[in-house]
Amino acid sequence: MTDTKAKQKIIIVGGGIGGLAAALALTRQGIQVLLLEQAEHIGEIGAGIQLGPNAFNALDALGAGEATRNRAVFTDHLIMMDAVDGNEVVRIETDEKFRERFGGPYGVIHRADIHLSILEAVQHDPLIEFKTSTHVADVKLKSDGVEVSDTNGNVYHADAVVGCDGVKSVIREKTIGRHHRVTGHVVYRAVVDLENMPEDLRVNAPMLWAGPRCHLVHYPLRGGQQYNLVVTFHSRDEEEWGVTDGSKEEVMSYFEGVHPRPLQMLDRPTSWRRWATADADPGLDDKEPQTDGHQNARADERQAHDRVMKSRHDRHRTGQQRRDRHERRVAAKNHRDQRIGEHQHPQRGQNLFQVVAVIQAADDQPLDNQTI
């Protein structure tokens, strides 16, 4: 460790999975960390999360890999199903060959369990200082670092600040002024106990049921004693970001016409939590950072950013037009193939059409790992 790194100090705002992981990563470089969390107790909300081999490798590097492995469930497969007709679309084995090829296992875990695994490593790190019940109100960029103040009037100084404070980030709002934007996607989450899980769906695998503008995912947690259930759909209404209690009636209204096998899952949870999701453009904004009179030459950066975004938009629009034309040609060809296949091999022609329909449905509704 160099003397320079030993003197460096960084403030991290937010004690979720991201904030704790960032703290451990910095102390691995010999940098001191002050972690500020607004909640009275550090914890994690939500249900399950899927971890690929790279995630376990990252956790190993942070010193939390073994604890996470002890709490995770290692799956046998990854399965994608057609939510309309109930047929299997694809299955990926996650056995020993998978682990050898990708350098690690594929697992699923409760968010509270992975958070606890990282928290335990943080608590044993002498370079990390915790402060809970600390709601950050402002941050100022100074010539010699940053100044962070909370709602209790306390002021903290450091070389830099890292914002891990979520969608309504104070750090982002006070520095670049970038606000969140609501996506229109709604995510329902629930945990179902093993005895309440349909027997034909007690599978040691993340199973995704892909449907038109909606999908459903379930997988085991905590030694298979619970199952995480996540349903996602694009809302018919104008949404406002937030987390509220959900209703079975709303979920069922978006899954009309799906196969009875996945449909039975929607009746099992005793309670739902509803997330109206949001994201943020990582680009520049009109707000200038607060500094000690230093001139910020960001006008050129903003103009360059605007040109890049316009170019991306134009390429996206042109590409979408090409994809639309291609999909129409594919649909027409598949319709002809289906009729020929049904005449020569009725079952084979039907299956071909179903697979194409599922792929198109999945393309309409991209899978978002944050919602799973």
Automatic annotation (TrEMBL):
Q: Which organism is it from?
A: Eoetvoesiella caeni
Q: Looking at the record, which segments are called Disordered?
A: 278-349
Which NCBIfam families would you find in this protein's record? PRK08163.1 (NF006021)
SUPFAM superfamilies for this protein: FAD-linked reductases, C-terminal domain (SSF54373), FAD/NAD(P)-binding domain (SSF51905)
Q: Name one GO molecular function term.
A: monooxygenase activity
Superkingdom of origin: Bacteria
Q: Which UniProt keywords apply?
A: FAD, Flavoprotein, Monooxygenase, Oxidoreductase
What InterPro entries would the database entry show? Answer: FAD-bd, FAD-dep_Monooxygenase_BioMet, FAD/NAD-bd_sf
Q: Where is the composition biased (Basic and acidic residues)?
A: 284-311, 321-345
Q: What is this protein called?
A: Salicylate hydroxylase
Q: Which residues form the FAD-binding domain?
A: 9-237
Q: Does the keyword Flavoprotein apply?
A: yes
Which cofactors are named for this entry?
FAD
